[in-house]
Amino acid sequence: RLGASAPRRAMAPAAVAGLRLAQAVAILVLGGEPERDYYAVRLASEVPSDVLVFVSSPAAGAEERYRLVSQAGRLRLSFDAVDTVTNFSTLYQALLAAKVTKVLLVTSPYHMPRAEAMGTHSSAEYVEGVSACTARHRISSLSLRRSLGVAIASIMLGAGDISFEPKPVPDGLSVPVEPSWKTWRDSLRSWIWRCTGMDFRFVAGNLKNFGWRFAALGAAISAAFIWAACCLRPRFFKLRKYISLVGARNGEADDIAHAV
After folding, report:
1. 107: left (phi over 0), alpha (psi -120 to 50) or beta
2. pLDDT value of position 202
């Protein structure tokens, strides 16, 4: 959607100055539609030249789209993520290693509500550069986002005291509108990752590749383990009791032998 011929809109001088004063600002691109890459390249040309660009699992051909950024030594490209949660978890350590304290979060408008926390930004700031249709959807869903408290970026980046500023692609894709259950699901996964370090990348990747067949297989295996545990547990206790009795009798026999 956004190519080289797209009109360039430079950031305000005050915004650029603010970035220079900030410590270790970076651009974080959540992989997906190529429009995110084109906008990230534009954004990288409008911010100070020492701002790194972290890209998580972009669409095919990303190396060419980021060629100029890569030649400048600013590109940090990763293909480890399989979904939105792992977009953050797979780059978290790299952000910490680069001592990043703030990221400019780039993704498509339809994807932004799940990736960031609406409660920390005004609706006017959030919908800047987004189509009117998308703006109406964001504002109507504001109460839901606030009821969720925080979403993925706040939870996962907050673990390392990294703040963020949403940068939805101007005039980017506003559909499909993502259902709220995805936000609930990913928020829960984010908290699990923050508390345990587990992002379930293997499970998410297999679900993405094999769909419900993998989920059905996992459910069948889990059910088999539960059934086995329920059925074998009484036998296990009986066996342990038998071993204890045999051990006690052997001990008594040893005592009698020693006494004799």
Report:
1. beta
2. 82
